[in-house]
Amino acid sequence: MTALPDMPLHTEFDSIDALRTALRGGKASALELAQSALQAAQAASSLNAFLHIDPELTLAQARAADEQLAKGQGGSLTGIPIAHKDVFVTRGWRTTAASKMLADYVSPFDATVVDRLRQAGAVSLGKLNCDEFAMGSGNENSAFGPARNPWDPDAVPGGSSGGSAAAVAAGLVMAATGTDTGGSVRQPAALCGVSGIKPTYGTVSRFGMVAFGSSLDQAGPIARHARDLLELLDPMAGFDERDATSLQDCDGVPNAPGRVRRDFDEALRLQDDAGGKPLQGLRIGVPEEFFNESLSPHIAQAVEAALQTYESLGARRVRISLPCTRLSIPAYYVIAPAEASSNLSRYDGVRYGHRAQSYGDIADMTSRSRAEGFGPEVLRRILVGTYVLCHGYYDAYYLQAQRVRRMIADDFRRAFAEHCDVIMGPVTPTVAKRIGENREDPTADWLADIYTLGVSLAGLPAMSIPCGFGGAGKPLPIGLQLIGNYFGEGRLLAVADRFQQVTDWHQRKPEQQ
Amino acid sequence: MAITDQDVARIARLARIALPPQDSARAQEELNGILGLIEQLQAVDTQGVEPMAHPLSAHQDISLRLRDDAPAPGGIPQREALMANAPAQSGGLFLVPTVIE
């Protein structure tokens, strides 16, 4: 297959594994890959997927990769072009969290995720657009303008990791990092026709990840397919003493690189041993609450077809109920804003970030700096969060939401204990909306988070893989959600991989704009 | 219970956000809309349910780890790098408006 003139060299390779083999065999050079990817990223600037590109930084990493490869050294990702969501702090590249508040911020250190992928040899193309402080589901809340969906530039790429999903879908990078607080990896992956995984809470370090909702935030990769997700997630996941919520072990197994890959390999081996019905014995729980009146018929059909594909592979479908699903919206929109209002109190115009030009006393300086530096959605969530944490409302809203959160987690716990091995359903009620839609009603988008929030509240691993196209206008991608039990990342990726071995949705590419 | 303009002023003050009058009216309207959404929680019977602060507490006994109370690597170069993003600084200090006359 020859690449189109503007497509970067790495798009000639179907997987990170294939590209790695070419790099190690001297059939590709990290420098040439980086140069062609930088060129493509610049040519695709109308997508607004990148917030900061610095060719010198990228090319230096690529040259170092080539030196290592020439010596027969390097890690599992040496020379592979990736990019980071702009909520991971990076030395060299600015870290803005897509906010005017941090427009000029340059971190003195790298986030653990950035460091681990760098140690594995990945070459970073720069920083990717997202919703401001990761708050949003359309990438429209970026202070630097919306990113666009490569399948239709008038449609949103989803969010908050919209730039990450758009960059992967457009073929600008092999893979990208994202973060998921209420669906921000799965939802953009679904809307851009690529794959994404949010691992179990506590498996990937949050050190150096700009904080939003600390009991929910978890980093995860976005790539074309499950095998490439594995290539990023495995080195990303591991204990980090600099994050108080980072786990030392996962059900008795050390939380370290190699864990996810071992589980994936083992699951795949068992599938292969099963022969013609590789998923024989796999029970897929299908929650009735995920197929409600707000689900568009296109999505319902695509998900149904995917479930039939799974049945043809030997899996069995089990009807389950997650009765508290509808409560995940109010519970999340109490807990996440409460944590955001607390986390974002650090932006005071003193130590870093935007400071207003004119002000009176120190309180006035802080209040004006914050009002100017934060965009409307962030201000809205800080105000909601402050309200629910107020004396007199704390019990009624915040504690009540935390009780409901346990009920939501218990729904999943019961389902996995009694009925199924994996849960499947839609990621979103509709395909990508038009940029600008719902602008008059800021909470309309919140309701569309219905299928992703419960997983985040429960801390479970979940992913999205492409399973079809639909919508009223131009056909737009549809995602299938796979939800696993705690620490089941490797097995989940293997279940997704089996689907991708017999379907080609993940190989479809948007036409060049 | 609807949020009044006085509530909005109080919340904005607590959140350290300067809200000009026109923004304040809009914020009041939006907050009341959001309140309508989250008020569904009140109707849920949560008697006997323990509030869940850590998501993995649904799966295992868990508490947040504390690090050793020991100094971390620091020094002047580290301090300079950390202060380089300050809007106003001098001699290793952050500059702010006069707090005490």
Lateral strand order in the biggest sheet of chain A: 1-3-2-4-6-5-12-13-11-9-10
Largest inter-chain contact set: A-B, 78 and 53 residues
| Total helical segments of chain A | 16
Helix content of chain A: 25-40%
Count of alpha and pi helical runs of chain B: 3
Provide structural commentary.
The complex is a heterodimer of chains A (513) and B (101). Chain A has 513 residues and is of the alpha/beta class. Chain A has a domain of 264 residues: Alpha-Beta Complex (Amidase signature (AS) enzymes). Chain A is 38% helix and 13% strand. Chain B is mainly α and 101 residues long. Chain B has a domain of 38 residues. Chain B has three helices and two strands; from the N terminus they run αααββ. In chain B, helix 1 packs across helix 2. The longest helix of chain B is centred in the first third of the chain and has 18 residues. Classes of the chains: A alpha/beta (513), B mainly alpha (101). At the A-B interface, helix 10, helix 11, helix 12 and helix 13 of A face helix 1, helix 2 and helix 3 of B.
List the helices and strands and how they pair.
The complex is a heterodimer of chains A (513) and B (101).
Chain A: H1 16-24, H2 30-43, E1 50-52, H3 55-70, E2 81-85, H4 112-119, E3 123-128, H5 162-169, E4 175-180, H6 186-192, E5 195-198, E6 218-223, H7 226-236, E7 249-250, E8 253-254, H8 259-273, E9 283-287, H9 297-312, E10 316-320, H10 328-343, H11 362-373, H12 376-388, H13 394-418, E11 422-426, H14 444-447, H15 453-458, E12 462-470, E13 476-483, H16 489-502
Parallel strand pairs in A: 2-3, 2-4, 9-10, 9-11
Antiparallel strand pairs in A: 1-3, 4-6, 5-6, 5-12, 7-8, 11-13, 12-13
Chain B: H1 5-14, H2 21-38, H3 76-83, E1 89-90, E2 93-94
Antiparallel strand pairs in B: 1-2
Helix pairs in contact in B: 1-2
